[in-house]
C-alpha cells in the first residue's frame, strides 16, 4: 500500500463505519474495501476506542445518530437557502408581471452549475444538464482519487466534497472539471445523493 498512512487510516475507519451502517458484515466490508478481515478488525478496535463504545452495534448507533443530526442540520440550511432563492425568484417574476414557467429550473440553475440526483448504485436519476438517459455516474465522470461508488456510499451518509471530471459522451460544452458537494437525501429519497457542482 502506498500513500499517506496517517491520512489513510481515518478515511478507512469512516468507510468501515459507512459500510457497517449500511448493513455489511466485516467480511463484506473487507471485500468491498480490498483489505483483509484482520485489517477491518484493526479499524474496529480504533473506532471502538474513538467512540468509547463497547460494541460494534453501539458504535454504528452513535455514528448513525451523528450523521442524522448533521444531515438534518444541513437540510435545514439548504431549506433556508431555497426559501430565500424562491422568495427572490417569485418577487422578480411578480415584479415583471409574469410567473416564470419553470421556477424550479431557475432555482436549480442559480444554486449550481450542475445538480444531480444519484442513487447509491451510481444511476443518475435527475440532472439539470443534458445527459444520456439512465446513465451511470462512472460512465460520464472520472474520479482520480478512487472508486466513485465508494464516494457515493460515503455521501449517502454524510456531506462529501469531491472533484469529478466530466467526459464523453457528454456534449463538449459540459466537459471539464467540477467540484461537487454531495449530500445525503432524507425521507422517501433516503439512500440517494444530491450532488451540486461548480465548474473549476
TrEMBL record:
HTH luxR-type domain: residues covered: 1-67
GO biological process: regulation of DNA-templated transcription
Keyword Cell membrane: no
Recorded superkingdom: Bacteria
Keyword annotations of the record: DNA-binding, Transcription, Transcription regulation
Pfam families in UniProt: GerE (PF00196)
MF GO annotations: DNA binding
Gene3D superfamilies named in the record: Winged helix-like DNA-binding domain superfamily/Winged helix DNA-binding domain (1.10.10.10)
InterPro entries assigned to the protein according to its UniProt record, in alphabetical order: Sig_transdc_resp-reg_C-effctor, Tscrpt_reg_LuxR_C, WH-like_DNA-bd_sf
PANTHER family per the UniProt record, alphabetical: DNA-BINDING TRANSCRIPTIONAL ACTIVATOR DEVR_DOSR
Name of this chain's protein: HTH luxR-type domain-containing protein
Source organism of this protein record: Fimbriimonas ginsengisoli Gsoil 348
